[in-house]
Amino acid sequence: MLAHAASCRNHPEREALGICVECRTRVCAECVTKVDGINYCVSCLAKLADVGGKRAEGVATAAASWVAWLSASALFVLAALLAWSLVEVAMPGSGW
Asked: Which member of 37, 43, 50, 80 has the lowest number of beta carbons within 10 Å of its beta carbon?
């Protein structure tokens, strides 16, 4: 065990080189992961990835519903134009 330096939570025999910004645990070079220059431990990084995945999933769901709404609107407009053109063919000059 290290006498004068802070030690890693997972590896007490190693010197801690960073502190996780989420849980404030000391971690060694093997246990730390930097994301945009910010230190994370393994467990906090896993939580961060899980939240990011759920956020991306929500965005994909919102985009899919928007595309479905747009498709339904386009189909409605197409059906209305088709009905109008059939009336014009059946009764030319009707003014409808």
From this structure: 37
CA distance 73 to 51: 33
pLDDT value for 72:
93
d(CA 23, CA 47): 11
* Inside any domain, residue 23: yes
Integer-rounded Cα radius of gyration of the chain? 30
Q: What's the CA gap between 69 and 58, in Å, rounded?
A: 17
Is the model's pLDDT at 3 over the cut of 60?
Answer: no
Domain range enclosing 44: 18-90
Residue with tokens 């088709």: 82
